[in-house]
Write a structure and sequence with these properties.
The chain has helices at about 65-80, 115-120, 125-145, 160-165, 170, 180-195, 205-215, 220-225, 230-240, 245-250, 255-265, 275-280, 310-325, and strands at about 10-15, 20-25, 25-35, 40-45, 50-60, 90-95, 105-110. Helix 1 packs parallel to helix 13 and helix 3 (about 125-145) packs antiparallel against helix 6. It has a five-stranded antiparallel sheet with strand order 3-4-5-7-6, with no helix packed on it. A two-stranded antiparallel ribbon has the order 1-2. The longest helix has 18 residues, at about 125-145. It is globular, with a radius of gyration of 23 Å. The protein has about 350 residues and is an alpha+beta fold. The chain binds ligand N17. Ligand N17 binds near residues 70, 87 and 111.
Length: about 350
């Protein structure tokens, strides 16, 4: 039995819920806060600023091409996201000293004490609060301009939360989708904030589409004609016609302006759905005062988002992204140095 090599200089090793974490010395007091299929997150204290951060360790990111592609995508997107309305990256590091040894990397972000699902579970949200939250989400979307998460078919299958918020064109692979896929999700979330209930809780793909069309009604023939897949077309043509419901009757206790905005977000036809920029100017947000201008989207180079590389190639491009990271400017200390 050979003992493991000592930790890299400037790093220390610690076991957290049965996995080895090897992080930079400056991150102290690691505490597990959650884990999922793709990684685990610890809170820690950044000793330079005494602020709480979240550190994510991806779970074996180079175990397969799919994992590697996701890991690369998360890193690229987080590096790209530098704006007050979205979570940003404070640091990314690897304890591995060469490309050949490269197996793990860690993402460091500002620590978030809560998230929407917790917020919605613990309190009934007032309309004021919903206005504020949805406005902030839309501002975040406008700067991102693309769908963040991409799910595999199996992750979207069955009675699963990963599908309940997805736009119909994504669920059924109707077409090459556009920026308004995320508006659909925001609409589902906003409706849930109002009613406290998941809006479209389908048990499988087709049941989900039926749940949606019970509210939106079946689309006009002109829409069905535009569907790319013949199977999708035939299926839609076989359905009995359903009438659009009055959203006010579906969303009990929603204000008329909230209902009006949701009627524009939850449109089956992605091309007719409101965009984030348009939604931000909707009268529903009139009382949400935001002094500054709306953020502008930075161009995101997605040229590697749809390519298939070998594991070694994913390793190389990811390693390059880890090493080229430049930390954001640390906020100025209030103390003056003479
Ligand atoms: O927010 C993300 C994130 C950002 C961009 C892309 C995830 C992706 N992504 C993931 C794209 N594809 C995949 C599979 N990641 C993230 C969010 C919260 C985290 C950690 C990572 O955990 C906390 C916990 C507490 N405070 C802050 C962050």
């Amino acid at each position: 039995m050979s003992s493991p090599p000592p930790p890299r200089k400037g790093f220390y090793r610690q076991e957290v819920t049965k996995t080895a974490w090897e992080v930079r010395d400056l991150y102290r007091d690691l505490q597990p806060v959650g884990s999922g299929a793709y990684g685990a997150v610890c809170s820690a204290i950044d000793s330079r600023t005494d602020t709480k951060v979240a550190i994510k360790k991806l779970y074996r990111p180079f175990q397969s091409e799919l994992f590697a592609k996701r890991a690369y995508r998360e890193l690229r997107l987080l590096k790209h996201m530098r704006h007050e309305n979205v979570i940003g990256l404070l640091d990314v590091f690897t304890p591995d000293d060469t490309l050949d040894n490269f197996t793990d990397f860690y993402l460091v972000m500002p620590f978030m004490g809560t998230d929407l699902s917790k917020l919605m579970k613990h309190e009934k949200l007032s309309d004021d609060r919903i206005q504020f939250l949805v406005y902030q989400i839309l501002r975040g979307l406008k700067i991102l301009d693309f769908g963040l998460a991409r799910q595999t078919d199996s992750e979207m299958t069955g009675y699963v939360v990963t599908r309940w918020y997805r736009a119909p064109e994504v669920i059924l692979n109707w077409m090459h989708y556009t920026q308004t896929v995320d508006i659909w999700s925001v609409g589902c979330i906003m409706a849930e904030m109002i009613t406290g209930k998941i809006l479209f809780k389908g048990s499988d793909h087709l049941d989900q589409l039926m749940e949606i069309m019970k509210v939106t009604g079946t689309p006009p023939p002109e829409f069905v004609q535009r569907l790319q897949s013949q199977d999708a077309k035939s299926y839609m043509e076989s359905l009995p016609e359903l009438e659009k419901k009055d959203f006010a009757s579906v969303l009990k206790n929603a204000t008329p302006l909230a209902v009006n905005l949701l009627e524009k977000m939850l449109v089956l036809d992605a091309e007719k759905r409101v965009t984030a920029a348009e939604a931000l100017t909707h009268p529903y947000f009139e009382t949400v005062h935001e002094s500054e201008e709306e953020p502008q989207a930075q161009l995101y180079d997605d040229s590697l988002d749809d390519v298939d590389l070998t594991l070694d190639e994913w390793k190389r491009v990811t390693y390059k992204e880890v090493l080229s990271f430049k930390p954001p400017q640390l906020p100025d200390s209030k103390e003056t140095s003479l």
